[in-house]
Amino acid sequence: MSKKFPIILAVTACAVQPMLADVLQLKDKASLTGKILAEKRDQVFVDIGYTVISIPRSQILKISKTETAESAVSTPSPAPVTAVPVPAGIESKSGIYQVASVPPPIKDVRELVNQLGESVVQVRTPGGLGSGFIIDPDGFLITNFHVIEGETQISVEVYHQNNGQLERKAYKDVKIIAINKFADMALLKIDDSDAPKFSRVLLGDADSLAVGEQVFAIGSPLGLERTVTQGILSTKTREMQGELYLQTTAQINPGNSGGPLFNMRGEVVGITNMKITFGEGLGFAIPVGMVKYFLDHRDAFAYSNDNPSNPYRYLPPPNRTVKK
């Protein structure tokens, strides 16, 4: 059978007939015509005849077809997918999280909790529980590595708003996508077949915060879900074990780990992950800049089922030609 394949492919490649080409409408009134070879969540690979280029999905407004004469191939092109529209004033980053291109208005904590509460979740494992927050409508969420460390059986509890009421829903098909145990971060994804589109939070900029500004946290301290604590940013450069953390007077307790620390615009500025146990008002959060770096380079931290304790994925060595 293996000898027949090159002949079949050669005959197929020589057949010329009219076929549909993919037309990608891009931002800034640009367009691109070619053949879509592969589609990923955050980019599309297009053969434009003399080379193959990758286009970020955030730059694609629409994908359509047009008739053209090209060599037929034996493998059909993937079905076109229209990019999900991004609301005005929101900018998509790395295809997995979003930031505000225009600073959102400042609101009080009560308004923001009603707006953001649905996006903050409780992360449960057989060994304990923590908090997390959804960054993408498809169910991607962030938590601390130490919340899921050594665990593979993970569930996420989400509070959906229905007719003004909050309904608790537990999702048990949760996958680990990437982990960085040195920075204490983990990227998870809810994969339940009946999962809806989720409410998500925006990632902000901790560098723009000033010491003394108000911040607040939402989480599940000691299992008390949807607990809100408010405080101020005490310092942005507290050095702990060689890393810089945000220090806040917002109360942080076991169970808050992995939850968001918000500014008064409703943007995540940090991940709450620890406190000093013999003091009060001494909580700490991982700056959101580190979170963005982790998400932007998530392939480097991809979780491996073959070696689940390793936060890095190592590529196989290149093949070497053996001389005979």
Strand content: 35-45%
The secondary-structure class comes to: mainly beta
Strand order of the largest sheet: 12-11-8-9-10-14-13
**Order of secondary-structure elements:** HEEEEEEEHEEEHEEEEEEEEEEEH
Mean pLDDT: 80
Task: State the CATH architecture of the largest domain.
Answer: Beta Barrel
Largest sheet: 7 strands, antiparallel
- Multimeric state of these chains? single chain
Q: Give the distance, in angstroms, between the N- and C-terminal Cα atoms.
A: 26 Å
How many distinct domains?
2
Q: Fill in the CATH topology of the largest domain.
A: Thrombin, subunit H
- How many helices? The count is 4
What is the β-strand count? Answer: 21
Radius of gyration: 24 Å
Tell me, briefly, the overall form: globular
The CATH C-level name of the largest domain is Mainly Beta
Question: Which residues form runs of ≥5 with pLDDT under 50?
Answer: 1-19, 68-84
The percentage helix is: under 10%
Protein architecture, described:
With about 325 residues, this protein is mainly beta. Helices cover about 10% and strands about 45% of the residues. It contains four helices and 21 strands. It has helices at about 5-15, 110-115, 145-150, 290-295; strands spanning about 15-25, 30-40, 45, 50-55, 60-70, 90-95, 95-100, 120-125, 130-135, 140-145, 155-160, 165-170, 175-180, 185-190, 200-205, 215-220, 225-240, 245-250, 260, 265-275, 285. The chain has a seven-stranded antiparallel sheet. It has a six-stranded antiparallel barrel with strand order 16-17-18-21-20-19. The radius of gyration is 24 Å and the shape is globular. The chain starts with a helix and ends in a 28-residue tail after the last helix.
